[in-house]
Amino acid sequence: MSILVVGSVAFDSIKTPFGEVDDALGGSACYFSTSASFFTDVSLVAVIGDDFPQEHIDFLASRNIDLAGLQKSAGETFRWKGKYEYDLNEAHTLETHLNVFESFKPELPENYRDAEYVFLANIDPELQLEVLQQVKKPKLVACDTMNFWIEGKKKELIKTLAKVDMLVINEAEVRQLADEPNLVKAAEIVRGFGPKTLVVKRGEYGVLMFSEGSIFSAPAYPLEEVFDPTGAGDTFAGGFVGYLAATRNLEEKNLRKAIVFGTVMASFTVEKFSLDRLREIDYAEIESRYKRIKLLTDFADIE
Amino acid sequence: MSILVVGSVAFDSIKTPFGEVDDALGGSACYFSTSASFFTDVSLVAVIGDDFPQEHIDFLASRNIDLAGLQKSAGETFRWKGKYEYDLNEAHTLETHLNVFESFKPELPENYRDAEYVFLANIDPELQLEVLQQVKKPKLVACDTMNFWIEGKKKELIKTLAKVDMLVINEAEVRQLADEPNLVKAAEIVRGFGPKTLVVKRGEYGVLMFSEGSIFSAPAYPLEEVFDPTGAGDTFAGGFVGYLAATRNLEEKNLRKAIVFGTVMASFTVEKFSLDRLREIDYAEIESRYKRIKLLTDFADIE
């Protein structure tokens, strides 16, 4: 079953302690859809400028991503410039040029409107809601957001969250959204806004998933080389929602497997700049890391 | 089998966003030995001043802790004053008065020298070595340390580590000791100093254990009320080493169970000031939380 994703396609210029790259392919929708494409078909809604090269379009198409919803506007593609210090958990934004993204109005091609699985990447919550209104009868709606919208459009965000089944956000943003420092309490407050499942991303510390009467903790895959964390969260979401859509099973047990697949996908993305590592891997490598996370977390019951 | 622990007995004055307390019973040896006492016998080596009240001695004795090695010196007991903001992961030290601890020379009573399990809490690495030299034939030596010794006595610390089987320290200290930002690489460097097992404490993010060819990740128990994190690390170590000594089994599978028991013990300590929560619990509550951590981390294999 295919997933509909709406988000950004961008050029990222990034400096980390290990290297730098200019105008590399990035953006939430690119990371999400490439990651999800290892599990299922993806239909993408985003906007690019007239400077966007054919090779990137060819790459996304080669991943079986439906690009009918990829609008092309006059002007430049969204650009982000950032850097990381040795503490790779925190991105420092140097420049943001929205460019064609500033006037982006997501419009769904007719064949997208039957989508059963929807991922609203981190964009204006009002646009997220507009997308949802165009989808006929989604089985699962997941979304992301960020501090910028929590600060500037909290009312609109909460209106969107009322229509969302799963929220996938960073730990600090859960606390901010709930205005509560304790994470367990904050998670309950945020679940009260609508999303019955809350997935809390904690960077190198992994993921906590809060659902009705259950908490699941998954570690990040321990890596000897973390090169660039950009896109890790969206790649995680792509593996998570991708696995759910592929298996069409929203039971807790399957949600947990999906979380681990998401974690595995993110572990590849951070090993190289941009989508470069995702261009190399195959499904066998994904399964191999899944099994290693199983070994990493396994311990015996009390007799 | 009983454990020998050497460390501090202290009075802590602590302020957190949730309350404050003055001159409460604390110190690494108190937290460790009280926690370990739920699993096995403990022999304590530490120093107190002549201001140390009988009620605290009675409490430790009531936990079956052997106090023959608890020296009493003229002067005041070690005092620490600290506070925490909402980010409970970081303690801010306001005052440290070593008092009688300044001239502490650990001397082991004769019957302590046969100890098979030894925990060297966070004290001067030269004193840690002196203690080790008094123990005849330990089966397991575990130790803790801190940034203060890594900065000021690195050479002495490395000399001690060469005689140690397990090192239990904070994440930032692993990186500092190895002079390497990547945790996986840093762990290998530190294991090269001697301890074949490295246990990395990550506060609310749980624990990573590095041993030969294996990494184990355990989450912290998610709590709705974290009242005061003081002593969490030593309580963790007490549960960890306590379970190992009680079961006399150092295989990887048992190490992992011990890590989870340590995590459970720490989760109790942080719920109240001082040792107050440990005074209330029983072994059934410990087992209950162990099972809940099992549920928290459980996910299915790939078919």
Automatic annotation (TrEMBL), chains A, B:
- On whether Kinase is a keyword of this UniProt record, the answer is yes
**Annotated GO CC locations:** cytosol
Keyword terms of this UniProt record: Kinase, Transferase
Record-linked InterPro entries = Carboh/pur_kinase_PfkB_CS, PfkB_dom, Ribokinase-like
Q: Which GO terms describe its molecular function?
A: kinase activity
Q: Which domain of life is it from?
A: Bacteria
Q: Name one Pfam family in it.
A: PfkB
Where is each Carbohydrate kinase PfkB domain found? Answer: 24-274
This chain's protein is named Sugar or nucleoside kinase, ribokinase family
